[in-house]
From TrEMBL:
It comes from Abeliophyllum distichum. This is Retrotransposon Copia-like N-terminal domain-containing protein. It comes from the Eukaryota.
Length: 160
């Protein structure tokens, strides 16, 4: 059997595109992409799913404060005009804020109703739940023991 060869050429492996994500709003379907709803007991698990989504869609800057809201107006030919970057930022931030809120259990939503931005939601949830003792491993010690007991019960059941 002949050895397989791959053609070599001088084509650069770097692909460039004129498509720019910053010109397109990103909407996250929380029910499909972040199905775990935040409860007072599962902050770390909830945070993990959202952190991955935010990195994947390049939206982490909205919640960590590194993507700063542009000024509302700009000068164009010495005339004050609406800044389209500001309009885009506000729209994207509200889509993200809405997706975050949609991923909260009903009992958690009242904690974020006064927030104005996705960053406000993120910080409020972090300060409320990240230090909660029952959220460190996604469950309490008791729940961990229950899980071990359920595994033992399953192995006994599967044996027969």
């Amino acid at each position: 059997m002949p050895e397989e060869t791959f053609p070599t050429n001088n084509i650069s492996p770097i692909v460039t595109s004129s498509f720019k994500l910053e010109n397109h709003l990103i909407s996250i379907n929380s029910a499909a992409q972040a199905p775990l709803k935040l409860t007072p007991e599962n902050y770390l698990s909830w945070h993990t799913q959202w952190y991955s989504l935010l990195i994947g869609y390049d939206l982490l800057g909205y919640v960590d404060g590194t993507t700063i809201c542009p000024s509302a107006t700009i000068k164009v030919d010495n005339v004050e005009a609406v800044n389209p970057d500001h309009v885009f930022w506000v729209r994207q931030d509200h889509l993200l804020r809405g997706a975050l809120i949609a991923s909260l259990a009903p009992e958690v939503i009242p904690f974020v109703t006064s927030t104005k931005t996705s960053r406000d939601v993120w910080i409020k949830l972090e300060t409320t739940y990240a230090t909660h003792p029952r959220t460190y491993n996604g469950s309490s010690r008791c729940s961990s023991q229950n899980h071990q007991r359920q595994q033992q019960d399953f192995y006994i059941y599967a044996k027969y």
